[in-house]
């Protein structure tokens, strides 16, 4: 099946899957209810983005030649979605969620065979930075970080799915320019996400059943983006440099590292909940939700484009990596400044006990 046809089929299937799972959300207990603090939406919203996307991955996989479908990874995706749905239903602790994410990362390495071998030529002398025996451990940590990053980013309509779509589109473009066939997982997810965004954002107008990603959807997107970046940057079939993979996921990584570091410096658990993410800062400085979303997506797109431009301009890896570090330092500086000039401070801290790593 041609990539465009597969993307269209995925979009059609996602439409049906979203309606189906939204109708099942109440009996399954997959509803997000407002709490008046961090959850300020109206009414109980179905948390079905993850199950719907998994359904599309499975159906399209059955319709394609088995050699084209990453069935081991889809199996891990099913486990991820199930655990995420249990989290949506029963609100697992942040520490337990992190342990689960590390175990899922272990499955990616041991069962699916995705492993980081090197970080490219980021050393100053141009030599390949080999990871050796620590490669699998770094891969596990990277996959867990990706799942946690998208879970943290899922704090306002369209944000986590939009950033994931930008990263996946960047991978598809890079794959096409390199003359490689985009993997099934990339095409299907990129085709399905615009439909989810319609339900997530346009659903507020009452024309569609408004739905959220939920922890199941955010963790699933983190798994897909993380493994796609690893597979695209490693091995004989690699079509991007490892440092370019970092550029494609730069904004969620920047946000995660900054927020967890900020919490630690305040003497709190890095897994505690608060309102210190990029979208919270933008909103507290007067941006409306659509404006904050546009700013986040613009920033994510800009970082991805810079990385791709350096990739295809054959900029040395070391210079690309240094530029990424400079960008992160700039992000930290802007975020710290935003915190200091924040109009309201006291109301942004979460309860003392860890809740969700967001």
How many beta-strand elements?
Answer: 2
> Can you tell me the residue ranges where pLDDT is under 50 for at least 5 consecutive residues?
345-358
Strand order of the largest sheet: 1-2
One letter per element, helices H and strands E, the order comes to HEEHHHHHHHHHHHH
User: Given the structure, what is the number of helices?
Assistant: 13
Oligomer: single chain
**Helix proportion of residues, in percent?**
55-70%
Protein described:
- It is a single chain.
- The protein has 358 residues and is an all-alpha fold.
- Helices cover 65% and strands 1% of the residues.
- A two-stranded antiparallel sheet has the order 1-2.
- The two termini are 38 Å apart.
- Residues 345-358 have low confidence and may be disordered.
Set down the secondary structure blueprint.
Elements (H helix, E strand, L loop, with lengths): L2 H26 L2 E2 L12 E2 L2 H14 L8 H20 L3 H17 L24 H19 L5 H19 L6 H18 L12 H20 L8 H7 L1 H16 L12 H7 L4 H24 L4 H24 L18
Helix pairs in contact: 1-2, 1-7, 2-3, 2-7, 2-8, 3-4, 3-8, 4-5, 5-8, 5-10, 6-7, 6-8, 6-12, 8-9, 9-12, 9-13, 11-12
Short description:
The protein has 358 residues and is mostly helical. The protein contains 13 helices and 2 strands.
Jot down its keywords.
single chain; 358 residues; mainly alpha; two-stranded antiparallel sheet; 13 helices; 2 strands; disordered C terminus
């Amino acid at each position: 099946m041609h990539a465009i046809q597969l993307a269209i089929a995925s979009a059609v299937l996602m439409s049906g899957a979203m309606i189906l799972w939204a109708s099942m959300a109440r009996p399954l207990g997959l509803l997000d209810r407002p709490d008046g603090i961090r959850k300020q939406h109206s009414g109980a919203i179905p948390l079905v983005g993850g199950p719907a996307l998994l359904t599309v991955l499975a159906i399209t996989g059955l319709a394609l030649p088995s050699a084209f479908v990453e069935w081991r990874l889809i199996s891990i995706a099913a486990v991820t979605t199930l655990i995420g749905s249990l989290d949506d239903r029963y609100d697992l602790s942040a520490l337990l969620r992190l342990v689960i994410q590390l175990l899922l990362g272990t499955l990616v390495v041991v069962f699916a065979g995705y492993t980081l071998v090197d970080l490219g030529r980021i050393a100053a002398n141009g030599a390949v930075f080999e990871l050796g025996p620590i490669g699998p451990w770094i891969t596990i940590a990277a996959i867990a970080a990706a799942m946690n990053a998208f879970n943290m980013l899922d704090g306002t309509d369209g944000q986590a799915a939009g950033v994931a779509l930008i990263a996946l589109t960047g991978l598809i473009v890079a794959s096409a320019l390199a003359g490689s066939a985009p993997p099934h997982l990339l095409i299907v997810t990129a085709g399905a996400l615009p439909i989810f965004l319609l339900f997530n954002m346009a659903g507020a107008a009452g024309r569609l059943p408004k739905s959220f990603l939920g922890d199941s959807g955010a963790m699933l997107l983190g798994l897909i983006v993380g493994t796609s970046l690893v597979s695209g940057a490693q091995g004989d079939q690699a079509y991007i440099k490892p440092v370019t993979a970092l550029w494609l996921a730069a904004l969620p990584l920047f946000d995660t590292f900054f927020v967890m570091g900020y919490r630690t410096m305040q003497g709190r658990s890095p897994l505690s909940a608060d309102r210190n993410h990029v979208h919270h800062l933008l909103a507290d400085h007067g941006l409306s939700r659509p404006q904050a979303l546009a700013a986040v997506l613009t920033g994510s797109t800009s970082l991805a484009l810079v990385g791709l431009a350096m990739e295809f301009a054959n900029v040395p890896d070391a210079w690309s990596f240094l530029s990424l570090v400079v960008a992160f330092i700039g992000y930290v500086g802007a975020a710290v400044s935003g915190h200091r000039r924040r109009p309201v401070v006291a109301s942004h801290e979460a309860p003392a006990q860890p809740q969700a790593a967001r």
